[in-house]
Amino acid sequence: MKPIRSNELNYLDCLIRDKFRHRRQNIESEIEAVTQKQTDKNYKSFVEKLGLKAEIKAFKEADDKLRKFQQQKESYEAKLFAAKRAAGDKLESKMNSWSSIRGWKGNYNDRMSIEIKEYDNIEHYLTKACKQETEVAVSKLPKFKVKHDLDLLEEQAKNVLYSGRDIKDVWKHLGQTFKASGVPVAAPKEFLQLESK
Q1: Same domain, residue pair 128 and 85
Q2: Rounded to an integer, what distance in angstroms lies between the CA atom of residue 171 and that of residue 189?
Q3: Are 43 and 57 in a shared domain?
Q4: Do both 129 and 163 map to the same domain?
Q5: What per-residue confidence (pLDDT) applies to 35?
Q6: Residue 11 falls within a domain, yes or no?
Q7: Cα separations (Å) of 55 from 8, 62, 67, 68?
């Protein structure tokens, strides 16, 4: 008796494994195809046999209602969002127009540019604009009239200072200017007194 050589043994072992694997795969594929075909035929009676028909119908109706509601909700939400954006754009446009007309200032003393994204943004802009306009009105009160005159009085003081006049005369005029502007200054009293004539 002639024994199987090692290389023949390996060859036959691989051949057997491959052939049986291939045959097994073919049979499993056929089983899958027949099973699927038979499942499609059996499904309806299988569900009836389990007594799930009413529950499936109830679930389908609930699912349909939910889907319909979600679609309507999304549609309604989109309409509400569009209405909000349109109202925001109209408000933003009007407020930007007022900002330009009334000279409202932004962060860097440029014209206030208004962008309305949320309702809470409105109060921020309007409070800022209201404060600016209130400040203008308050600064016009008689009590603060001197604020408008400060630049003029400061210029007058500098003109007197550089006029080349006598020191007593300069101090006399500076004293009057400081007094008119409400600026406290410690100056020699003899310079600030008016000469008697």
Answers
A1: yes
A2: 9
A3: no
A4: no
A5: 94
A6: yes
A7: 63, 11, 18, 20
In this structure, the number of other CB atoms found within 10 A of the CB of residue 125 comes to 22
What span, in angstroms and rounded, lies between the C-alpha atoms of 114 and 107? 12
Q: Which two tokens stand for residue 63?
A: 């699912």
Q: Which residue has the tokens 């007058």?
A: 156
Task: Examine residue 159 and state whether it is found in any structural domain, yes or no.
Answer: yes
pTM listed for this prediction: 0.52
Supply the range of the domain harboring residue 22: 1-50
Quick: pLDDT tens for 66-102. 999 999 999 999 999 999 999 999 999 999 999 999 9
The percent of residues in the chain predicted with pLDDT above 70, rounded, is: 94
Other beta carbons within 10 angstroms of residue 115's beta carbon come to 10
In a domain, 197, yes or no: no
Per residue in 119-148, pLDDT tens?
988 999 999 999 999 988 888 888 887 777
